[in-house]
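agent: user wants the structure for DUF2507 domain-containing protein from Halobacillus aidingensis. delegating to structure tool.
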Amino acid sequence: MSVLKESTKLTTGNISSLVGTGAGFDLMRYYTLPDFLGKDAPYLLYYMGKNMARQTEISTLDELYEFFQYMGWGELVLVKEKRKEMIFKLSGHMIEKRLNQKMFEVEFRMECGFMAEIICQISDYTYECFEEKNHKENYVEIKALKG
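agent: tool returned. relaying tokens verbatim.
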């Protein structure tokens, strides 16, 4: 079993050398994990995202956007910022394909958990993230609410 070395943090530099396919990841994420985890899958995927973020060195929103690209999670941009809320748009070819496929009900809980933890690390405030899918325009709105 391969384990992340204690001293190795995930960065856009070292993940860019990884090879992966979106299809394999999606099958595991939407088919195998929910079958294995049962009704708790959305909650556990959220916390898996938070855990992954704790092993990642990201200190700016630009690094977060770049990380999303490398992971194949889509193009992330901040579209609105208020005192207690940040609204992001997640779009791109991969998001369009995920939203329009007919095999699985897609969710973005892992991305939300990852973002909640990274934004907390960047800002020193607790955030929770929630997604809203826009199938008509092929994007996902992710709201980060300050706790």
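agent: one observation worth passing along. The domain at 21-146 is CATH 3.30.1380.20 (Muramoyl-pentapeptide Carboxypeptidase; domain 2).
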